[in-house]
Structure formats: structure tokens, C-alpha cells
Amino acid sequence: MKWGRYGRRPLAVLCLVGLVDSFDRGVLPAVIEAVQRDLHFGDSEAGLLNSALIVAALLLAVPGGRLADRLDRRILVSVVLAIWSATTLLAAASQRFSQLFASRAVLGAGDAINDPAVQSLVCDYYPVEIRGRAYAWQRVVPTVGIGVGTALGGLVYHFAGWRVAVLAVGLPGILVALLVRNLPLPARGDSDEHLQPVTEAGEAMTTWQAVKATWAVPSLRVLLGATAFINGILTALGFWGIAYHVRASGLSEATAPGIAGGVILVGAIAGGVAGGIATDKVRNRVPGALMLLTAFVTAVGAVLLFVSFLDGLPVYAVRLPLQMVGVALVVSSLPPITCIAAEVVPAELRGTSFGMLKLGANVLSAIAPPVIGLIAETHMIRIHTGEVKGDLGFAFRCTTGVILIGSALMLLGTRHLDRDTARALERV
């Protein structure tokens, strides 16, 4: 497959950005039980650590998108990555819950600024006929990073403790920052066949004007609501998945990160790649094809995930395979979602569109982990180690079904998609 005039290098480097950004999201769940013992906090506080990332992203998602529309996106990403690496060093040195919470908030802010810039660059590097596959790799890599970070965190924790595990995932960010800075800078709209590329962000708009212009697109409004429900559960699963298998599946703290991380890794790679291929294959087959695709895969994935959290299932024969396929299906929705967000607005507003998508994706993501922690604490169980812990399986059974709300919204949005895409291409 040909990758256009810029080749594979920009995609590879931008995938590395997502990889290092996501390492920290994977390593903390892998060592959360040890961190709780060391810093003396419970499940509801542990959930707030993930919320710190997401609340910061909520506050900076739209401003981060506007920065992507106005500044050199390569420099923006490079600077943020350097700050991210320094913050990770501070996280590893935390002595109190409040210090760890603050460092997580800074990491979330960096992700909110980086994400719109990276996705905007991918859209300008790669033409529409291969964009789904380009976004597949860019979107799946963070999930892969979580899986690798989880497995790596568990391994390093076993030999050197949780502080060294957290420290180890932050150091590669400096090298990746240099790689991003040396990428070629594409014009905005450079890879869109019917658009006139622009070297600047176009007509000067205030942030409020840009938000109003993107909010006026019906497809994007649907996307914002749907991604809130879908990503809320994905985030909670990523945060609590390791602890769930320790408590409900009888896995040890040493083996659960590698096993659960492997499930996430295989499911995410398979689902992301399949979703990208499907995006490029079906996009013009029927009206609203990309939203129909997203509605279908997320609905089926939600059902499989719900079943996987039922009590009494054989762990290796049923529970883990169901979770692998469920994760694969839900993750396969990410490439079409990202393409929709890119293609229903003009090129000079794509940063804002991705910022708003980030906002939507993080609304329930900020709430879900602590809510699941609180629900788990209402049903205490005695686990195989003899400890009394919250029933995370019960909490997931209570909440996984909200993905179906996102699926229904996507289904309703199919009637707007093709019209909104055509309007975006009409920009002179």
C-alpha cells in the first residue's frame, strides 16, 4: 500500500507520541495496589487519579485544539512531550496522594494539547483513501501503549518497586520530542483532493467563534455525545481491569498485569487495524456508512464485555477471550470516529474539531473510574488472598451497558454524515 507523498515516517513518529503518552496510563493500574498501600488511600481515591488526567483534559481540550489550528503543530507537540517527561519524574517521587494527583493532572493537560495537534497532522499527511488505516495505527497505539505499560510496569515493579516502574515509562518522551520536531510541516488540507491547501490557520477566529462553527455541524454533535459513553467505559476498564482480575479471577498481582495487558494488547491491535481497513472499504458504500459501522461494532462489543463480567465464568476459556473480542470491537470504532471528526469540518478547523472530540471523550471518562470504585465498595467480597475488597465485577455489570447509548446516538447520526462531509468540502 502506498502512503502518499510523505511516506510512513510521519505516521511512525506520531504513533510514538501516542505510545509514550499512554505508557503512564498503563503502568499505574499495574502497580495501583502497591501505590495504595504505600501512600495509604482507598479505591475511590484511586479512581480520582484517573479523573485528574481527564478533568485536566476537559479544561484544555478546546484551547488545545485552537492551539493546533494556529501554531506549528510539530513544535507544540515537542514542547508538551518534554514537559510530560519532567512531570513523570515528579510522579515517581510522590510521597503523598495529593502530589501524585497533581502530577496526573499535568499529564492530562499535556495529552489534551497533544492529541488535536497529532490527529490534525495525520489528516494533512495522508489522503482520504488511506486515512482510515493511518488513523487506525495512530488511534490504536495508545491502547497498545497501555497494554505494554501495564506489562512493563508489572515486570519492573516485581524487581524494583512501583517508583522505578513509573520512572521508566517517562524517559523515552524526550527522544520522541526531537523526532517530532524534525518532521516536515504539511499545509492544512494538503492531502484533501478537493481543498486548496492553506499554510496558516485561515481566517482569524476567536476560540468561541471556532467552537460555534464546529458545534453547528450535526454529525459532530452526535459524535461528542457518543464518544462520551464509549470512552467512559473504556477508560474505566483500562484503569480497573488489572485490579478486577486480581479480585475476581484469582490472578496474582505479579501475573495479572502481564495477562490482562496481553488481552488489551491483542484485542486493541486486531480491532484497531480491522477498524481502519473497514473504514477505508465501507466509507462510500451506503449513506452514513462510517457511523453505521461504529454503531454496530460498539453495540456488539458492549454486550460481550457485559457477559465477561458475570460471576463464575471460566477465566481462561471464557472471560479473557470475551474481553479480548469485546475490546477489539470497541477499539475498532476509533478509526471511523476520528475520520468523521476530521472530515465534517474545514481543514483549518480540524484542531478545534479534535479538541471538541477530546472534550466529549473525556466527559464520562472523568466520572467513570471513581464511580466504579464507589459502586464496588457497596458490595464487598473476600478475595483469594483473604483480603476484603470492593466487587469490581458488580460495578462493571452496572455500567458497561452505557456503551449502547453511544451506539444508538451513532445510529441516529447516520442521516447527517454525508451532507456534513459535502459541506466541509465546499470551502473555497
Q: Can you lay out the helices and strands and say which pair or pack?
A:
Elements: H1 9-39, H2 43-70, H3 73-92, H4 97-125, H5 128-160, H6 162-168, H7 172-181, H8 207-215, H9 218-248, H10 256-282, H11 289-308, H12 315-331, H13 334-343, H14 350-363, H15 368-377, E1 380-382, E2 388-390, H16 392-399, H17 403-425
Antiparallel strand pairs: 1-2
Helix pairs in contact: 1-4, 1-5, 1-7, 1-9, 2-4, 2-14, 2-15, 3-4, 3-6, 3-7, 4-14, 5-6, 5-10, 5-13, 9-10, 9-14, 9-15, 9-16, 9-17, 10-12, 10-13, 11-12, 11-13, 11-17, 13-14, 15-16
Q: Output the CATH homologous superfamily.
A: MFS general substrate transporter like domains
- The mean pLDDT is 84
Task: Spell the H/E element sequence.
Answer: HHHHHHHHHHHHHHHEEHH
Uncertain spans: none
User: How much helicity do the residues have?
Assistant: over 70%
> Count of DSSP E strands?
2
Question: Cα-atom Rg, whole angstroms?
Answer: 20 Å
Count of spatially separate domains: 1
Strand content bin = under 5%
Give the strand line-up of the largest sheet.
Answer: 1-2
Distance linking N and C termini: 31 Å
What's the shape?
A: globular
CATH topology: Growth Hormone, Chain: A
Oligomer: single chain
Largest sheet: 2 strands, antiparallel
What is the CATH architecture annotation?
Up-down Bundle
Detailed description of the structure:
By secondary structure, the chain is an all-alpha fold. It has a single domain (9-182, 206-425), classed as Up-down Bundle (Growth Hormone, Chain: A), CATH 1.20.1250. It is 76% helix and 1% strand. The chain is built from 17 helices and two strands. A two-stranded antiparallel ribbon has the order 1-2. A hairpin with a 5-residue loop joins strand 1 (380-382) and strand 2 (388-390). The longest helix has 33 residues, at 128-160. The radius of gyration is 20 Å and the shape is globular. The model has no long low-confidence stretch (mean pLDDT 84).
